[in-house]
Amino acid sequence: MIYETLQILKEQLEKYFDEVGLNVSLILDNVALWESGSKDADKLDGKVILTLLNIEEEVTMKNIAVTRVVNNKTEYRNPPVNLNIYLLVSANCNSYDYSLRSVSRTIEFFQGKRIFTSSNTIYNRANVSFDVLDYFKFIVDLYTPGFEVVNHIWGTLGGRQLPSVLYKIQILQIDRDKKLSTGEVITHIGGTLENLQ
Hints:
Residues 6-187 form the Pvc16 N-terminal domain. This protein has a six-stranded mixed beta sheet. It has a three-stranded antiparallel beta sheet with strand order 3-4-9, with no helix packed on it. It has one domain. It is of the alpha+beta class. The protein has three helices and nine strands; from the N terminus they run αβββββαββαββ.
């Protein structure tokens, strides 16, 4: 679900860039490759790069029921994992002003649409990884770390900073849909009560 979410956001942002006449290519890749000296670094030149920065579990959603009744049988399952992911949108355009415009348009797009669902989002369903994608809902919020955190982020990614914006995407649910075991449904309790006095 992580790749699918980021790919949907990339497609949506590309469509918006086309609508507003911003002629910039978007790529879903690791911005740490930029200036790494590797042969893959060239593919990031002149592009807006979407990079997965961090994954965190949403612990407030952990206490979800792990049993279901299907065809009069109780199914026991592990609870789904609910995630928040952090997306860094970096502009590595050919000029600094174009990079700034790309970041501004990105903020503008997510200000206009921050809730993405399978019913309000048009995406490329021909992508083979979307075969298992029936329903999704995630919320994109601007995340503003302090200067020290930004310094650590770009230090980890390789040094020099690009014009960028950071988003927190809540809540992705990952569920393998695997039964652990099944059992009979408890419909009544038998036995007799005794007076304990």
